[in-house]
Amino acid sequence: MREPIAATSTDPLVPSGVAGAVLREVATLLAALAGDPGWEGAIDLRGLPVDDAARAALRDFLGCGEVDASCDVAGASSVRETSFCGVWWVVHRCASGAPLVEQIVVARAPALLLAHPADIVAAHRKLVQRLDVRCGGCAAT
What we know:
Helices cover 35% and strands 21% of the residues. It is of the alpha+beta class. It has 2 domains: 17-109, Ribosomal Protein S8, Chain: A, domain 1; 116-141.
């Protein structure tokens, strides 16, 4: 059961305005994830009136976690865990480096970090083939 999120906070460290509203939505999404570990949700920051000050307030409040990953497929993407387990800051950039997508993702791990099932099958085949070549047919399938 989701706990209601207060519309305002008396804590002076909690951002107000758009940043505060985004954080309350993050709390709601995190409650959903806590209730169902397979659940995933996201907040599209580029679709909201988030200015540089609000973005900085969000980053400061959410902090940094232990995971920082990047990949480069048709532009660079970065995935950074925040100090709140299950809350991720994800940015996808075009080839020129301009941000295309900026999201706060609430999930056990963002989909971007999960291996595609077909890629896993191909990796298995490749590994077995390399083991067969090096071992003279001794690889287990």
